[in-house]
Amino acid sequence: MGNNIIDGKKVAGILRQQVKEDVQEWVSRGNRPPKLQAILIGNDPASKTYVNAKTRACEEVGIESESVIFPDTMSIKELKEAIGKYNSDDSIDGILLQLPLPGHLHPSQVIETIDHRKDVDGFHPMNVGRLTVGQPTFRSCTPAGILELFRYYSVMTKGKRAVVVGASNIVGSPMAIMLSRENESGKATTTLCHKYTRDLTQHTIQADILVVAVGSPKLITGQMVKEGVVVIDVGINRVADSTAEKGYRLVGDCDFDSVAEKASLITPVPGGVGPMTVAMLMKNTLLAAKRSIYPQD
Fold first, then answer.
1. Marked catalytic residue, from 121, 208, 233, 253
2. What b/e sequence results for 201-226 when a residue is b if at least 16 CB atoms lie within 10 Å of its CB, and e otherwise?
3. Residue tagged active-site, from 37, 98, 253, 255
């Protein structure tokens, strides 16, 4: 890898090893292993791949996991009933609902059904609210993983100009909150842009730290960034490529070659942010088992 390439696989491997050791220590004190329950609705191949990657990671670190696949015809009432059973099952520490959901199921309605103490994705309004006011919480896995990359590569955020492109509840919004918080991984002057932002370049060109998460292939080009910028590309987009074995290849939201010429650090796609997201999910599941954020009543 080039000198300016952020190696997400390597950092995620270090994190997973830490979680593995923590799990072993937890179990050696007489506790049962943490357990993650994954829920998948329908047969979307990409979602299946993601869930499989997460359950493999669980196995690697000593976390037990179970996956259930419900038909995409499932009603909101049926799904809420199923989640209710997992909420009341004391052997389950974390509940993972794989997104996106079929069109007739609204994510916010379903996510609110999950017990916030088992919301290891960090999407429940209780956890988002606690994040916003700086209280201990399950942090959304992708932004939390990005902060771990900053820590490993000694990227200072204090006083820097950070620009986040993409305002989703999963990545963009919590990322902007974390970067602007008054703590050691925040204190950045943070701008949150989205698809309605006029003249995007006037914002991105000023960024010391640029996080892009919009799902738009090669949206950000080298002309849109300044020299020395730290670039985190969260996008994973399939583009047709007849030379590739599968007929497509994965690219990010940045035009990698032109942006990498200017960036002091940049994440590749794949192999950048993705592995970190899974590692942070493992960390959150262990925290849920230890009840370290929400102690049992």
1. 121
2. eebbeebbbbbbbbeebbbbeeebbe
3. 98
What pLDDT digit, counting tens, does each position of 120-165 carry? Answer: 999 999 999 999 999 999 999 999 999 999 999 999 999 999 999 9
193/12 Cα distance (integer angstroms): 28
The tally of CA atoms less than 13 A away on the side-chain side of residue 244 is 10
* 189: amino acid identity, one letter: T
d(CA 165, CA 182): 21
Q: Is 121 a catalytic residue?
A: yes
d(CA 257, CA 262): 9
Query: What one-letter code names the amino acid at 279?
Result: A
CA distance linking residue 231 with residue 272, whole number of Å: 11
Q: Which residue among the candidates 54, 93, 208, 283 is catalytic per the annotation?
A: 54
Domains of the chain: 30-118 (3.40.50.10860), 141-275 (3.40.50.720)
Residue 209 to residue 229: CA distance in whole angstroms: 6
Question: How far is the C-alpha of 256 from the C-alpha of 275, rounded, in Å?
Answer: 19
Told to judge if 98 belongs to the known catalytic residues of this protein, a careful annotator would answer yes
Q: Over the stretch 206-235, which tens digit does the pLDDT of each residue have?
A: 999 999 999 999 999 999 999 999 999 999
